[in-house]
Design a protein that fits this description.
This protein is an alpha/beta fold and 292 residues long. It is 44% helix and 15% strand. α6 runs parallel beside α7 and α7 packs parallel to α9.
Length: 292
Amino acid sequence: MYYECHMHIFMNGRDYHKAVAQYRQGADEADIREKLSAYAKAGVTYLRDGGDHYGASALAARIAPEYGITYRTPVFAIHKNGHYGGIVGRGFDTWKEYRQLIKEAGEVGADFIKIMVSGILDFAREGALTEESLEADEIREMIHIAHEEGFAVMAHTNGADAVLAVTEAGVDSIEHGNFMDGECLLALRESRTIWVPTFVTIANLPGSGRFDDASLCRLKERQGAVIQKGFAYGVTIAPGSDAGAYRVPHAQGIQDEYRELYALCKNQMNREEFEEKMETAAREIERRFQRI
């Protein structure tokens, strides 16, 4: 049994632009059903989507029970205009607009809110992000407003400063979490925040020919060491692959993620203990990330 705590049903794991073209006129039900069927065959019983522009995850949530799958979605992610996030959601300029997006998310069936607070890995510049994170006070307000409206918050977060900011603001889960340091891990250990590292978005890239393999391997080793230390510190780490991202196929991606995470912590625990930790963390996500 697998739990997939971060995925995007509309993406295809190969070509983001083709996925957008396929869904631009609306959710492709046949494609969604094919992916849900693959998840069911792989023994995946829980999916948490990261949102999209096209109503894809909302449709998937309605039909997933036919496949024996519990499906949770923010419907769309929310980002500050001028910053990363437009590929999976909608933007705001003012707090009034942000509050309106929260309201609209609830009206269209969001189970939780996903916010975007930083850039992504810049694979062309080793050790860098595409942009700096939002200011800590902005991050705090985004999380506070969503919590005030009764939603759990999933935060796309990279960089040590951003991780500390969202953790201190009481975010429910951190997605990706690249470039953390020891202070971040200690803060996570003392918090209620769950970390979903989506490690295979890095680990599956060597050999793709898209980026320099030596750089990718160093990045994999660097992030792997942080995850390994996170397990040792007692940070709550949950399984999620970012399925649909480049070289992270649906259904297969989460199996890859379990394999890679276990390889990092197998000197700390046996397979049964690892799988129990994954299930406990995933069930906590399942419990929190639903609209009551």
